[in-house]
Design a protein that fits this description.
Elements: E1 11-15, E2 21-22, H1 26-37, H2 46-51, H3 57-65, H4 68-87, E3 92-93, H5 97-106, E4 110-114, H6 119-129, E5 137-139, H7 153-162, E6 171-175, H8 178-187, E7 191-195, H9 202-207, E8 212-214, H10 220-229
Parallel strand pairs: 1-4, 1-6, 4-5, 6-7, 7-8
Antiparallel strand pairs: 2-3
Protein name: Phosphonatase-like hydrolase
Organism: Streptomyces melanogenes
Amino acid sequence: MKMSSTTAYDLVVLDMAGTTVADGGLVEQAFAAAARSLGEDPEAMVDYVRATMGESKISVFRHLFGDESRARQANTAFEEAYGELVAGGRVSALPGAREAIERLRSEGRTVVLTTGFARVTQDAILGALGWRDLVELTLCPADAGGRGRPYPDMVLAALLRTGAVDSVRRIALAGDTSYDMLSGVRAGAGVVAGVLTGAHGKDALYEAGATHVLGSVAELPDVLARAEAS
């Protein structure tokens, strides 16, 4: 049984790749294909790509390739390459992720899945996993005005679109990158949980504002239950 409405985390915003979805390094593979398509050396850029995991991909390409035209060309090439890898069966649910989502929903919480990918890629992943009807809402940067992480826009869009809670402090967020943590902090989420199944380690997650660091998203339902009981 939940405590008072001021402590119930009834809106849960979850990242996809690295948090609920295992993609086996497909982001780097797709990035390399995109860089080569523009005649660039991906090895010279891979450190930046790793450091900015979780950020909107078009923002990463704007930084790396400069002008808007080349950035959009690279982003299109990236989405196509990633989509082909997804279609080839290269993504899977992280252990316990689906079960955690189903438990959260059974407890009366609204769950939203977010990503830094474009909608076409997000839909391909959801389709490959059979997750199209798993949650109430899925969001990509374009659904929140075009700004992805580390901006708070997708988290706030989840609140506005679902109307699931009456305060940002009743939002719980989980992700695997520093950018996920920053977006949660900037949105005012009450729980900002980092998970160790993706891009960034414990220290980086805490430095970016994580309130909790978990081994995986499978631990999140119990963490929320304890937070509500305290």
